[in-house]
Amino acid sequence: MNVIKCRAAVAWEPTAALMMEEIEVAPPQEGEIRIKVVATGVCHTDLYHLFEGKDKRGFPTVLGHEGAGVVESVGPGVTDFKPGDKVIPLFLSQCGECKFCKCPKTNLCDRNWSSKYHDIMSDPTTRFTCRDRPILQFMGTSTFSEYTVINQIAVAKIDDDAPLERVCLLGCGISTGYGAAVNTAGVTPGSVCAVFGLGAVGLAAVMGCKNAGASRIFAVDINEQKFEKAKVFGATDFLNPKAYNKPISEVLAEMTNGGVDFSLECVGNTEVMRTALESCVKGWGVSVLVGWTDVKDFSARPIQLISGKTWKGSLFGGFKSKDSVPNLVCDYMTGKIKLDEFITHKMSLEQVNDAINLMKTGQCIRCILNISK
Ligand code: NAD
Ligand code: ZN
């Protein structure tokens, strides 16, 4: 099989603008699939790696982990995929054989892309080169490229009729927020919920709370422009913490007779994580960390947990990825979950820096990059 030369947006170093480059994409090896990427979303986790993360070793890389595409070719030993299949790359794999995959309590997988090797697939090599340098594959996926190579344990085959420029969102943000509410928090009918941060992840969490039957959903964000969208997904009350001269957890406690049943932090800020926990009702309140950060410790008073609250975290919404993503695509196509409403902008791969800037400045929910036809 041949090496493919194609366009990709390369992040040569942290904080710098991405550069459009011609890269070489090697043929898929044993168990791997080469995918023609059709569309991709831009997620805050891409920005986190580029601007906020402490580990600067994961460069140069091709970012993007919220994509969808079509199988171009398959490596030896791949039997479940064939050229032409529609697929969604998974930043969280499901090998089906490790102790985590076999356990129903978790969606982790021991064979996931390894931070040990810095953002490549599950082995220490990459299939990308550019200007004779190896280029890492961010979160094992790299969807800001016309072609990528991914291990079959990190690819979901989806419905032939699925619109790729929309279902790509199920590769990360929407599955993450939705699952955090319905799986990790386990939102119950009639409950009162609060979602902190109303990006795509938070809005999907609002949608999850609504679908699980919550009776009241507080949408909390410092950017009030997000409130209108939150209403579309089922939020009933809207709070800007900056508009109050006391902690928002106290405001929520007063409005709910002691605190909410479920809170979800979808910002990636340790102070907000603490606030979300403090906003829960004692006795049974559950607070879920969804926002992504690994740069500093968080703190809380022990009495928060001693009083009977539960603090937990959620990766990819607790969904076992390969099993669940095809079902979520069906849920979209049958109208059980929304996707179109998250899309506020559409751009080309060449405009990726503009798309990143839109998210950085809070002007978009999701910008879809059309990568190829
Ligand atoms: P986004 O930037 O679109 O949304 C973040 C929102 O938080 C914005 O609306 C912003 O105004 C709001 N915000 C900022 N500071 C706030 C504060 N102090 N109080 C209340 N709201 C505040 O990001 P996104 O793409 O929706 O991602 C959200 C988070 O989820 C990120 O941290 C991302 O890395 C993380 N994430 C986690 C997983 C996972 O598996 N756990 C997966 C995907 C993304
Ligand atoms: Zn993401």
TrEMBL record:
Residues 13-369 form the Enoyl reductase (ER) domain. Its cofactor is Zn(2+). GO terms for biological process: formaldehyde catabolic process. Keywords: Metal-binding, NAD, Oxidoreductase, Zinc. GO terms for molecular function: S-(hydroxymethyl)glutathione dehydrogenase [NAD(P)+] activity; zinc ion binding. Pfam families: ADH_N, ADH_zinc_N. One of its GO terms (cellular component) is cytosol. The keyword Metal-binding applies. Belongs to the zinc-containing alcohol dehydrogenase family. This is Alcohol dehydrogenase 1-like. The lineage of its organism: Eukaryota, Metazoa, Chordata, Craniata, Vertebrata.
